[in-house]
Design goal:
The complex is a heterodimer of chains A (about 100) and B (about 25). By secondary structure, chain A is α+β, with helices and mostly antiparallel strands. Chain A has a three-stranded antiparallel sheet with strand order 1-2-3, covered by helices on one side. Chain A is elongated and about 45 Å long. The model of chain A has no long low-confidence stretch (mean pLDDT about 90). Chain B is mainly β. The relative contact order of chain B is 0.29. The chains are: A alpha+beta (about 100), B mainly beta (about 25). At the A-B interface, strand 3 and helix 1 of A face strand 2 of B. Strand 3 of chain A pairs antiparallel with strand 2 of chain B, so a sheet runs across the interface.
Chain lengths: ~100, ~25
């Protein structure tokens, strides 16, 4: 995945079955963001794989004051890349479940 | 721990905690 300066990782082990997964997001390189972000630390949240889109969550993070509006796309992309990887892994490792 | 902060927004719960030093990229 492209280096967006924003890191998103699983916050719990993925058993391949749950529809919602816990993710953790933090800024690795603040210079890649357009707006100034607060020194947030790591933001942990749950993501509904079937129901939600990374854009929705990114917008909520902006609304909650974690990031500037101008960075909503880079946040969404970072989440999207990680979610795509998780879904790819699930389909590859547990094809019977899909 | 005491550094953990919980932020609610649009029905979602964000849990904010410090990033462990080992996870930060070296500048």
């Amino acid at each position: 995945a492209e280096d967006t300066g924003v890191r998103v990782e699983l916050a719990e082990e993925d058993d391949g079955r749950k529809s919602s997964i816990a993710l953790r997001l933090w800024v690795e390189d603040a210079k890649k963001l357009k707006g100034k972000s607060k020194d947030n630390g790591a933001i942990e949240f749950t993501f509904e794989l079937e129901k939600e889109t990374p854009d929705d969550v990114a917008q909520e993070m902006v609304d909650a004051g974690f990031f500037h509006e101008s960075d909503v796309k880079i946040i969404a992309k970072s989440i999207r890349d990680r979610v795509a990887l998780i879904q790819w892994r699930r389909e590859r490792i547990c094809p019977m479940l899909h | 721990n005491s550094f953990t902060q919980v932020v609610h927004s649009a029905g979602r719960r964000f849990i904010v905690s410090p990033v462990p030093e080992s996870r930060l990229r070296e500048q």
